[in-house]
């Protein structure tokens, strides 16, 4: 499914200018049909999967209890 520049900006919660810059930097693949850019929505699937994976890892890390303080004496 292809999205317009405006739809992509809404989908990614970015401004249209930022999307245009990402297209210019070739970080987002897009087709130009002579009037507007068309962006394939599937290219963002992996990005969102990685975000969900990292969110789960962070939540798991934050749920771990803090270990008790080990009383280590510095003796020479």
UniProtKB/TrEMBL annotation:
<dbReference type="InterPro" id="IPR010093">
    <property type="entry name" value="SinI_DNA-bd"/>
</dbReference>
<dbReference type="GO" id="GO:0003677">
    <property type="term" value="F:DNA binding"/>
</dbReference>
<keyword id="KW-0238">DNA-binding</keyword>
<dbReference type="Pfam" id="PF12728">
    <property type="entry name" value="HTH_17"/>
</dbReference>
<protein>
    <submittedName>
        <fullName>Excisionase family DNA-binding protein</fullName>
    </submittedName>
</protein>
<dbReference type="InterPro" id="IPR041657">
    <property type="entry name" value="HTH_17"/>
</dbReference>
<feature type="domain" description="Helix-turn-helix">
    <location>
        <begin position="2"/>
        <end position="50"/>
    </location>
</feature>
<dbReference type="InterPro" id="IPR038148">
    <property type="entry name" value="Tn1545/Tn916_Xis"/>
</dbReference>
